[in-house]
Write a structure and sequence with these properties.
elongated, 7-stranded mixed β-sheet, alpha/beta
Length: about 1500
Amino acid sequence: MGESLLLEPSLAQTLAVSTAKTSKLSLSTSTQRSLATWIKDNIRKKECCFYVDGDSKGICKCGYQRIHHVDDSIKPENYLGETWDRHRHVHEVPTDAYGDIWFGGLGQKIGKYVRVSSDTSPDLLYQLLTEQWKLPPPNLLISVTGGAKNFYMKPHLTALFRRGLIKVAQTTGAWIITGGTHAGVMKHVGQAVREYVLSSGSMEGQIVAIGVATWGAIHDRRPLVHLEGRFPAHYSLDMPSQGHLSCLDNNHSHFLLVDDGTHGCYGVEIELRSRLERLISQQPLGNRESGVRIPVVCVVLNGGPGTLSTIFGAMLNRTPCVILEGSGRLADVLAHVAGLPVTKVTLSVIHQLMKRFFGLEYDSFTELKIIEWTKKIQDIIRMPQLLTVFRMSEDNHGDVDVAILQALLKANRSSESVGMERWERQLELAVAWNRVDIAKTDIFTEDSQWKSSDLHQAMFSALLGHKPQFVRLLLENGVCLREFLGDQTTLCDLYTQLPTSCFFLRRLAKRIQTEKSRRSQTLSPRGAAGRTISLSHVSDEIRHLLGSFTQPLYPLPGLHSTRYPKEPKEDVAVTLPPKEQLELQASPDPDRGPGRDSERGEETFRDPGGDLFLWAILQNQKELAEIAWEQSRDCTSAALAASKILKKLAEEGAEEEDEAEEMRELAKHYERHAIGVFNECHCCDEERAQRLLIRISSSWGQTTCLRLALEADDKSFVAHSGVQALLTQIWCGELAADNPLWRVLLCMLFFPLIYTGFLGFRRDESIQREAERSAELLTMESLTGSQACTRRKYPVHDLPARNPLGLKPLTVSTRLVSLFTSPQVKFYWNILSYFSFLLLFSVVLMIDFQTTPSWREGLLYVWLISLVCEEVRQLFHDPDGFGFRKKADMYINDMWNILDFLSILLFIIGLAFRLTTRLFYAGKVILCIDFIIFCLRLMAIFIISKTLGPKIIIVRRMMLDMFFFMFLLSIWVVAYGVAKQGILIHNEDRLDWIVRGVIYEPYLIIFGNMPSNIDNALFDIKACSVNGTESQKPKCPILNEDKMPAFPEWLTIILLCVYLLFANILLLNLLIAIFNYTFQEVQDNTDTIWKFQRYELIKEYHSRPAAPPPLILLSHIFLFIRRIVLQRPPNSYRAFKERLPEVEEEELLSWESFMKDNYLLSCRQQQSQSMEQRTTDTADKVCTITELLQREEATGSVALVKRLTRLEEQVSQSARALQWIMDTLKAQGLHSKEEAPQLASPGKLKRSESEPNEPHRQEKTFYHVNARRLDYPDSTIPRFPVLEEKVPWEVDFILYNPPVLNGDSQDQTDGSEPDSVKRYRNPGGRTGMKGKGALTCLGPNLILDPVLTRWRDSERSALEFLAVWDQEDGLWTLPGGPVQSDEPLPDRLLRIMGQKIYDRIKTKVVEVHEGYVDDVRNTDDAWVETTVLNIHLDRRSLLMADINRMAENTVGCVELVRWTEVSSRTRMCSYQRDALRRVAELHQRTF
């Protein structure tokens, strides 16, 4: 059952009002105040509280001058007589340096900074970074370390480093942490960030570069200090005057300035930076708790001894390191020894490399320091899984970014996690970094075997992170969407975690808030607060977008159940009270059309690809939607539904015009997809393609492709020849589509002709085609003698959709019914009826309009009543289930329906007036005007005509242009008319003559009716009235004494000429140009628009009763009795909607998927062959070749040197081999006549003489490692560094001076050795520590490790041992321990097992091994030795039952006991894993 997820009220309110994307602006005043308050409350700095003069007068030992100390620190009473101590005489106070920092200059962005104490908790710093500075948590932490001073790197290596660093930070969303100053490696990082900012020029995808620097070592700190913070602080780089201090780098984005109260001291920040990196590495990666933590990688350039300590500490913390060979000094030293065996990394080799790469600096190194560094380098080499060297001369890494990410994967691959858990962690990292290339090369390899369930977490993360390339990669490598979305909770989680900027999520939140407010009165407060987001809410909102004619995609429980094919049935839960749930189950859906109960609604099969496609479409994610659409089965319906949803979202979310335009473009894209797939289907099989259009889709709201295309206004899809062929077939009904019109009309008048074969029927043609096909098959079988070829000729995808076998010929009655129920025949009868109606109407108006209505007029009234009844029937006829409101809207929005309504309304008004004596004539006038409207209605009838239909569309468009033209023309008409009337006529008070002079006469002038009253030569006083007293004559113009017009004749003629110039020439030609433009523009689309509008006419006449008006009244009476009186459901029309059987539907969808694959293949071929794609591919190849040439040029000399070095080594080995052959021959008494040539230099000979001893030395290849770790457990005293070659006691080690450590006495570091210790010597060699250390006694400390084993089952499929969980170390251990009695088993086993079991198993002991243990507690004088014992138990014995009960009782205890398989994958310490290996060999099992 799908679980519902709670939506917080605050989130819902935020989403409901959130209508714009978050803009990245500078902090507002309120935000700055909030930040300042938080920093003052949580962040501290350090300052000296005890002034003591140092080496220079006026300067304290803390490094600050006297004036920088507070007054209380000058003569403090608490510290009198004390010596200055950094830990005691420095205290914390609230920080005074924080805010924004601006370095000035072109292209510089404002950063953040804060001064923090060196003892600040890293949790506070991480909270500052993520919550106060609003940095998103990183997917990767890159710690860049190395040379703190400026150093030289080759230009090509510099470019590789900068490009790779920025690429890995940009693609993975990483944080880069450096020292933050403008020198050395930090400067290189800053320059890389700078180049990226200048090239991108956008704040989007900003690189986070965090500088952790020492406050006391920063030059010019004064501008940064202010108690209330600086917003911003202006900081300038002053390199010449910085002295021994350092300037901050101007390209970092954030600065943590670490303060320990001193001035001029470097390295203060190292410890805090290490703690911060460790804390970040413990944070979960991503939004969900998957067990994966934020990975950390250390990148090393150049560097000195301090960098070596940093690398050593990082690798001890399991942090991988990437070394850039060629960057100088320590990086090159490590690069040269990386990959060598530890035995070859000797002190002399390190001396040579130090001298080579450190130059003059090498002379200042002491021998003890070099020994210590060599020891650290050897320990580093022992961890090859954490060490990666980037070499320009090798192509396996590519760029630096690939090397960094591969180093992390290599480290993760060698971690404690085993099996698929390890691969899943690596995949989770690759998804978080969004690096598909890394996943392809390093994760999805032949070594990894993936199941679909193993990839579900990565798939979920990729979907939420909008990473389409990863989604495609996961699908290609085994993700099954049916299993991934099999649990509806996953789909619900995807909708719940939509981004807050998603318009659909805001609508969903608004719907839930409305539902809460509506139900708050009926629900209890607890019930109202428990409302949830579930798939039912999603379904309601999607239904709103698709239309009310669809059914819910995710129905409520009790109405339908939703499941994927071949999966268990699952419901989607909604939190409802029982009473309401019963009401929902009992009450029918008002929006469901009649007859829905008879449909197959008990169970809804869902398409997982369609669900994922819908989720992506609602976010306007084009690439994700494309991938999901390719995985969907009902792809044509999905594409058309997406077009409808996107257009609706663009319409309702119009306030964001850019996003709305993207949605409209995506809607057109999926309309093209639908056309492409349907075109493939239509070309393959026309009959199947037509069934695809009218098939009811259970995955998309129980609607059809055709209905979705019409609702989405996808004119191009409807105009497709396949869709039009279906409409033509429906239009013709059972008649054949190729019947000539004259035959149809003749059969309408003389219907007996249909029995003579004069008119073709579709069923007859189907029977004839099937008979011809059967005859052809029989002929082929008779020729070949086999049916195999017949089967091969018609493969699966070429078989017809329906087998017409079994169709019976039409009978006499069915032929007659088929003729008169054909929409085409209905249409022609209605045309004849309408012309008859107009003829009767015109006769009544012109000839037979009497005071008392005649029989003709009565027939006219009956005819009109039938038309009114038909309009009412069309308004309430709703086979698609739109609902009355939607149907009424559709009716009103149709222009022809408006004409119908207006004509009927005017007829009723005219009839009412006509029946009265007083308004008799007015009624006739109204009816005459109504006759005009009835005639205009004829245009709607001819829409079906392929010739006249497009022209009518053009006329409608030109009528709109005419309306705007008349607005322009009216301006000139009124302007000229008023001016002319005012000049010619004085005070005309008759309104009709004013309208005639102002509007009518200027309008007629346009058509050539020139006025006579503006020219004196044509003036006739008899044709006008002087005073305007004669109503039939116009008023005369102003006259003079001679009774002649007194107006300025020249002015009126000029006005007339100007008016004619603009009205006749300009505006009329403008109208012609507009019409021409409209015609040219609409002409290309008229055919498409006509085909789209043709559907409504065909559907109208398909559902129309067969009888024409006025006989249609009989059909209306029959329908009234059937629907209202008898309460019977309406007839369903399979021509527009058909539910297929499940088997047939599956076959049709499989065929459609096959056609979709063909379509996608053709699209990819067209795209690859396009000129644009070819240009792009050529440019990529040129860039690749250029980069390879540059790399070859930069690395050619390096490769040549390496080849020569290898050649010299081979020559040297050959010389030594020849020398050995000569020595052997001489030893056997064989001598040559000539003396043997010298094969090597004396130095080489001397080396070769010592080589025979080397095999003897190499006989013991194992030296203890853990016993030589520099840090001794639970002690602050480090071990003396013991190199690999100095471990044996036989080897001289003059400088060896280890400290002495005894657990029960004070530590001794002077190297003195008590007499009682001298007689003990560690058999494993030197350890770097004397005394007994943390062990209990000097000499061997004996422990017993019993291994209790059993077979897992009777087939002995696996060997298991009894393991105890060590919660502190996180490892499985053996139940062993020291021996403190004469018992053969350790006391720990007695404590765990109990006395009874202990006594029974101690008799079954078999000794397996006895020897030295490489333990971290070992010293030169005390060490651990173990004896491995095996106790093998019978799994069917009573003793085994007691042990199993004991193990069950330890669940939840500190020491958990469990049977575990004997395997190398078990997480154990090294020496106990070796003990398991020996036990496995004893039982002949592979370890």
